[in-house]
Specification:
Blueprint (H helix, E strand, L loop, with lengths): L2 E9 L3 H12 L15 E8 L2 E8 L5 H8 L4 E9 L2 H13 L4 E7 L2 E6 L1 H4 L3 E6 L26 E11 L2 H12 L4 E3 L2 E5 L4 E6 L7 E9 L2 H10 L3 E3 L2 E4 L2 E7 L1
Parallel strand pairs: 1-3, 4-7, 8-11, 12-15
Antiparallel strand pairs: 1-4, 2-3, 5-6, 6-7, 8-12, 9-10, 10-11, 13-14, 14-15
């Protein structure tokens, strides 16, 4: 599969409490702060989970896209599914498929050999979808949103190993799965609750809305190595739901022991 999940972005009203929950519960470490998000009226912090990344953004100005998203979804939650193509040609083909099916581009940046394209959440309903390509297209290494390299010593997999799936809740799961699948070039697979779309290293699960918060990135699936330590920390920080699920930043985290 030529498209890899590389990063999940969450949005929070206040940044630091969420970063503390994530690092204390998941056992992951901060690796990068991107001053460039200030252009969008945001602050952020990124953390590696395996060879991929978790980002949290928070508005620091009025009338930002992230702030409107917080209002629409009634609080903190999932925000972006950020992927990497294995080549510029793969990325270009995905962009063309999106445009041909009427999906709008919300934001596009081209800097030397780094090109990112975000598709509009108004068309993709549950979240932004971003596809990136750079001069390396290294699924296990170089990643421009964290400055390329220099983050490797911050990888800590003693408790949380990797993100393996994304839950996207929506009004019509099979229909939305078909739209996302068309862009990334994967045929959706029916599931008991909706449909799934496979990326190279993760699965997008499209499910009905059950929490009253409307369409959105509602859950993440993670492989964990030390579930008891993770659950203990979740209880201490009031994020525990049950032994297979916790809640951080308005997102359900489904635990699978590796």
């Amino acid at each position: 599969m030529p498209i890899q999940l590389r990063q999940i972005a969450l949005v929070a009203e206040h940044l630091e409490p969420v970063i503390e929950d994530l690092t204390e519960i998941l056992g992951i470490e901060r690796c990068y702060v991107d001053p460039g998000v200030g252009f969008f009226g945001l602050e952020n912090t990124l953390m590696p989970i395996g060879r991929n990344f978790l980002e949290v953004v928070a508005p620091v100005k009025e009338n930002t896209a992230a702030g409107r998203y917080l209002q629409r979804r009634h609080g903190d939650g999932g925000y972006m599914v950020i992927t990497q193509a294995d080549s510029k040609a793969t990325q270009a083909d995905a962009i063309q498929r999106a445009l041909d099916s009427g999906i709008r581009i919300a934001h596009e940046t081209d800097r030397d050999d780094w090109h990112l394209c975000q598709f509009h959440p108004g068309d993709l309903k549950a979240a932004f979808l971003e596809i990136e390509s750079d001069q390396f297209n290294d699924f296990n290494g170089h990643w421009m949103p964290v400055g390329g390299t220099g983050w490797e010593d911050k990888v800590n997999q003693t408790r949380t190993i990797d993100i393996t799936g994304v839950e996207l809740q929506c009004e019509n799961p099979p229909e939305l799965a078909a739209s996302w699948g068309h862009i990334v070039g994967t045929e959706p697979i029916p599931t008991p609750t909706g449909a799934s779309v496979a990326l190279n290293n993760a699965t997008l699960q499209f499910v009905p809305i059950e929490d009253g918060r409307g369409p959105g990135l509602s859950g993440l699936y993670i492989d964990v190595l030390e579930p008891q330590a993770l659950l203990k920390a979740a209880k201490q920080r009031n994020c525990y739901i049950n032994d297979k699920q916790i809640s951080i930043c308005g997102v359900r985290w489904y635990l699978s022991e590796d």
